[in-house]
Design brief:
Layout lengths: L2 E8 L3 H12 L5 E3 L5 H6 L24 H8 L27 H14 L3 E3 L3 E5 L5 E5 L4 E9 L3 E3 L5 H5 L5 E2 L2 H4 L9 E5 L3 H10 L5 E5 L9 H8 L4 E4 L2 E9 L3 E9 L5 E5 L2 E4 L3 E3 L31 E3 L11 H22 L3
The chain binds NADP nicotinamide-adenine-dinucleotide phosphate.
């Protein structure tokens, strides 16, 4: 008979770990499936620790003003995890910054540690199948482990979108990337003109980051105004290495087998005219898709596949005892701190559900 759990949490971003911290402090002994370290997850951007693991400094997570963060992280996180810490940000002279805002991977390692400190158990594997029609629920991992659970919190987040061009897939990992922070410092991108596609905060953040290495960054946006917040817009407009390519989309990625990507062909959204831009890389920042494929119709979702909450400001899904938190159920706010907040809510909802059913 498969193990029977009180709370199984699927996902390991801010929502998953916040749920685990609350559930473990409530003595519910949660089990977290944090995802597997596979090539496929790497390519999809769905590795453990979620999207924050793919970012640099997080300046807007309350409680983490810039400071000597690394010392604190080293003191808080188990020694066997220290090798996973990202390199420190550099100042303009190439020296390690000693005062900086917490980096995404550091923040996630801190959350994971905090959950573990209260007894959360972690399995480094993907959930590939669930059955929420029977109770206790059935949950199956990619390595064939089967778990039964009284409650389940889905916190699997969302992943970056690509344009879907054939030429784009041809040059994936050979000039095309959806993560500037992961790949931007690679030698192939240094001192070259680069392209970022998109007009939101991610596009500006990626462009600003890439401008440190690139000779120039072209931001290709399909409209003539950015969606990004005002403060991010000002950052882009005041950076003389960033050039806006308004009202254009990428029609084709150019390159050859020997050199990989060498440029992009732009098409105007106003008059359909085309022109080529020389570039060493193209970075996508055009939004996200929720990681809900493994649920295969088990829960009500919207047209984009985001899990629907059954009642406003409750993490209840269409199945009693299954809760959803973080970006997997949020196509609107999508912030680390809102994800953490809904993770907390999901754990409290699960705790109340178990208490109502008399399950300890
Ligand atoms: P987003 O706000 O949804 O922006 C996506 C951008 O991609 C939009 O400008 C959109 O154009 C464009 N786009 C979408 N599909 C496209 C296509 N097929 N071809 C060309 N362009 C396309 O996504 P995001 O920038 O990833 O941000 C998501 C959330 O995370 C937001 O809430 C944002 O505030 C937050 N975030 C915050 C920070 C920060 O504060 N430091 C950093 C990153 C992200 P249109 O504008 O025309 O729709």
């Amino acid at each position: 008979m498969a193990d029977l759990e009180n709370v199984v949490i699927i996902g390991s971003g801010p929502a998953g770990w916040s749920a685990a911290i609350y559930a473990s402090r409530a003595n519910l002994h949660p089990l977290v499936f944090e995802g597997a370290m596979t090539q496929e997850n790497q390519e999809n951007g769905t590795l453990p620790l979620g999207q924050l693991n793919l970012t640099t400094e997080v300046e807007n997570y309350a409680g983490f003003p810039a400071g000597a963060v690394r010392g604190f992280v080293l003191s808080a996180v188990d020694e066997d995890q220290h090798g996973m810490l990202p390199p420190l940000p550099k100042d303009e002279h190439g020296h390690d910054e000693n005062k900086y805002a917490v980096m995404g991977p550091e923040l996630m390692m801190l959350m994971r540690q905090q959950a573990k400190n209260f007894g959360t158990r972690v399995i480094t594997d993907d959930v590939v199948e669930v059955d929420f029609q029977t109770h206790p629920f059935r949950i199956k991992s990619s390595e064939g482990k089967e778990i039964r659970a009284h409650t389940c919190i889905i916190a699997t987040g969302a992943r970056a979108n690509y344009l879907g061009l054939e030429s784009e897939s041809r040059f994936k990992n050979r000039g095309v990337s959806a993560c500037a922070v992961c790949d931007g410092a690679l030698p192939r991108f240094r001192n070259k003109p680069l392209v970022v596609v998109g007009g939101g905060d991610s596009a500006v953040e990626e462009a600003t980051y890439l401008a440190k290495f690139a000779s120039k960054v072209h931001v290709v946006h399909r409209r003539d105004e950015l969606r990004a917040s005002k403060i991010m817009q000002e950052r882009a407009f005041s950076n003389n290495k960033i050039q806006m390519e308004w009202s254009h989309t990428v029609d084709e990625v150019l390159g050859d087998d020997e050199r990989g990507l060498t440029g992009v062909r732009l098409v105007s959204t106003k008059d359909g005219s085309k022109r080529d831009l020389e570039a060493g890389g193209m970075f996508l920042a055009i939004g996200h898709t929720p990681n809900t494929a493994f649920l295969k119709g088990q829960l009500d979702m919207n047209a984009q596949g985001y899990i629907k909450w059954k009642a406003p400001f409750r993490t209840y899904t269409s199945v009693d005892g299954v809760f959803a938190a973080g970006d997997v159920s949020d196509d609107y706010y999508r912030q680390a701190i809102t994800s953490a907040g809904t993770g907390c809510m999901a754990a409290l909802d699960a705790e109340r559900y178990l208490a109502d059913k008399g399950i300890e």
